[in-house]
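ARCHIVE CARD
Drawer: 12
Card no.: 0347
Subject: one protein chain, sequence and derived structure
Cross-reference: see card 0346
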Amino acid sequence: MKHLLKSILISSIVLTTAGISTVAMAQSYGSGTSASASQVDNTFTKKRYSVKGSWNVSQKNGQNVIEFNDDFKTKSGPDLKVYLSKAAIEDLDSDKVEGTSLKLSVLKSNRGTQSYTIPADINLSEYKSVIIHCEAFSVLWGGFNL
């Protein structure tokens, strides 16, 4: 998704395997509207280093959570952090991270499933991207647009 949608799109997919049904809900965030289940898979964009895999945003226990999926992997590096940015990933470079971004956490691992809870007082619709950035050397690894 390149842009936040103005309205909420709800779609459900029913998968049936051996008589077991699973319903998956997907939603896009609109201006200030949050939803009970949001899972929109997408891939990362490389800035300095390759960042591969998919991600989704969901809501758990009333809080928004950014999840890097099982296929996530990137080069390891010192002092890697996960940020929310008010700028789109294509508009960012290392110099712009500090002025446009909110630090969420230290990157938990350079591969595999991991999640980052958005603080309750943060309105996710005010942010355009999630980025991985080496704080110590001011290197923008990559990220994705919300």
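Annotation on reverse: The domain at 34-145 is CATH 2.60.40.200 (Immunoglobulin-like). The chain has a mean pLDDT of 76.
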